[in-house]
Design goal:
It is found in: Membrane. GO terms for molecular function: monocarboxylic acid transmembrane transporter activity. It holds the Pfam family MFS_1. This protein has 515 residues and is mostly helical. The protein has two domains: 27-212, MFS general substrate transporter like domains (Growth Hormone, Chain: A, Up-down Bundle), CATH 1.20.1250; 311-495, MFS general substrate transporter like domains (Growth Hormone, Chain: A). It contains 19 helices and no strands. It has helices spanning 5-8, 34-53, 55-66, 70-86, 88-98, 100-118, 124-153, 158-200, 202-208, 216-246, 254-311, 320-349, 353-358, 361-380, 387-404, 411-424, 431-439, 444-473, 477-514. α2 runs antiparallel to α9 (202-208) and α3 (55-66) crosses α4.
Length: 515
């Protein structure tokens, strides 16, 4: 993972001659503050991803308020979801330069501002800018650091830690659905969005908890070596003074020495009083220059790392399995988002509103989604189980549910399919783990930024596409069928590339045997 100057305690002084550094294992890895990072990430998922999964409530309010088509209105929700993920690669640049904590703090303020400004919307296009872009960018600036920090702090139990933190999406979808429904009923959707903006300011608290991994053991050793050097220098000076005394150079009378010392002190004080103003200005200018140079060095270093990851010789796109993973992400996320956005409308079409009001189908997905993430995370951490295989099986289960959902027209059958969707979509907790296995911890921020960017493109076009299909056919069936088939194409890419990777070494070995 690329760390900023803040993350690694970068010192711009010349420490190359200080001595060798002995790096000891950090006690906060897999324990200690690592669990506070999990808590912070959990709360981020509640406030960001949970709120976005509850946007179906606001979508119905916007349809009634602005009297626009379902396709156009769905763009508000999809813009917010899509931009949250699409900005991932650019947030990776921010993390490389500023660190996760500062990035998350700025994002929390932007997200709250987007919610509050949306309360004054006069049309759907106003919401595109305030809620879709402003709140979306702010969400992305908090979401990626929350995922990356968990990957930094955990090595042995990564899947479980990511599973626990991302269960916030399920809790958030359940809690925020109930909260937004209550706020819209009691205060109207405008006041509901204003209050939600105030709640979103807690993202700044979550960002403050994202303490960078420190290497104090290394820094303390550096200072110990420096102090030893200073002691040795002092001893050498005292020894040289004694030698000079013994040679008679300093054998003057004590009175003469005191008079000479007083004259020197008077001269020094006079010089200091005369040059205080000039030296103060010079020191102030030097401090500004040093700060600017340090900032420029940090920006250049972060940009160089970010650029080399995407376009350099060691580009992430030279990894074929990673490229297949990106193609899969382009089709996968919309299949999960579409039910959350359009299920309230589907329930109304089937005249199931009374049953859905008692226990909403989106809440069923959210609750089971929590257990799915934790259970799949525990299974993936078992030594005899492959995380990749668990990930693929969950994908197959989810795409099957998406293709069969339009066939269900009773509340019980829809509830069963929604429960399966919730459990299967628990593979989201495995995405950072699979990404880290493919590219390593060093490239996790940029690689996962690309993955969630692809997910964002999927979320951006998925719900409006489903609304557009409904406007033409007056049914949501074809939307689920088409998104399910595209999802299947992405899974096929995941299956093909590992087979190609395994075949290549065998082909090389046979050629070497022939030679």
């Amino acid at each position: 993972m690329y760390a900023s100057r803040e993350d690694i305690g970068y010192d711009f002084g010349d420490d190359s001659k200080v001595g060798s550094k002995t790096v000891k294992p950090n006690p906060n890895i897999d324990g200690g503050w690592a669990w506070m990072i999990v808590l912070s990430s959990f709360l981020v998922h509640i406030l960001i991803m949970g709120s976005q999964m509850a946007l179906g409530i606001l979508n119905m309010e916007w349809l009634q308020e602005f009297n626009q088509s379902r396709g156009l209105t769905a763009w508000v929700s999809s813009l917010s979801m899509g931009i949250t993920l699409i900005v991932g690669p650019f947030i990776g640049l921010f993390i490389s330069m500023c660190g996760c904590r500062k990035t998350a703090l700025i994002g929390g303020i932007l997200n709250a501002l987007g919610w509050i400004l949306s309360a004054y919307a006069s049309n759907v296009h106003y919401l595109f800018l305030t809620f879709g872009v402003t709140a979306g960018v702010g969400s992305g600036m908090v979401y990626l650091p929350a995922v990356v920090m968990v990957g930094q702090y955990f090595q042995k139990r990564r899947a479980l830690a990511q599973g626990l933190s991302t269960t916030g999406t399920g809790f958030g979808a359940f809690l925020m659905t109930a909260l937004l429904k209550y706020l819209c009923t009691e205060f109207g959707w405008r006041n509901a969005m204003f209050l939600q903006g105030a709640i979103s300011l807690n993202l700044c608290v979550c960002g403050a908890l994202m303490r960078p991994l420190s290497h104090k053991h290394v820094v303390n050793e550096k200072y110990v070596v420096r102090s030893n050097i200073d002691d040795n220098q002092a001893k050498a000076l005292s020894h040289s003074a004694e030698t000079i005394k013994s040679n008679g150079v300093l054998s003057e009378e004590p009175e003469k020495k005191e008079e000479a010392a007083n004259e020197v002190l008077d001269n020094v004080q006079h010089i200091e009083n005369g040059s205080n103003s000039r030296s103060g200005r010079n020191m102030y200018g030097l401090r500004i220059l040093k700060t600017v140079s340090q900032l420029m060095l940090t920006v250049r270093k972060g940009f160089a790392i970010w650029y080399s990851s995407y376009f350099g010789a060691a580009s992430l796109f030279t990894n074929r399995v990673f490229v297949a993973f990106v193609i899969w992400a382009l089709f996968a996320y919309s299949s999960f988002v579409i039910p959350f956005i359009h299920l309230p409308e589907i329930v109304k079409q089937y005249n199931l509103s009374s049953q859905n009001h008692i226990f909403p189908l989106t809440s069923i997905i959210a609750i089971v989604h929590i257990f799915g993430k934790v259970i799949l995370g525990i299974i993936s951490d078992l030594p005899c189980i492959s995380t990749w295989n668990v990930f693929l099986m969950a994908n197959f289960s989810l795409v099957t549910c998406i293709l069969t959902l339009p066939l269900m027209q009773t509340y019980i059958s829809l509830a069963v399919v929604c429960a399966l969707i919730g459990f299967s979509s628990g593979y989201f907790s495995l995405m950072p783990v699979v990404t880290e296995d493919l590219v390593g911890t060093k490239h996790l921020a940029n690689a996962y930024g690309i993955i969630i960017c692809a997910n964002g493109i999927s979320a951006l076009f998925g719900p409006p596409f489903a609304g557009w299909i409904y406007d033409i056919t007056q049914k949501y069936d074809f939307s689920f069928y088409i998104s399910g088939l595209l999802y299947m194409v992405g899974i096929i890419f995941l299956l093909i590339q590992p087979c190609i990777q395994k075949k290549q070494p065998r082909e090389k070995s046979t050629e070497e045997a022939q030679v």
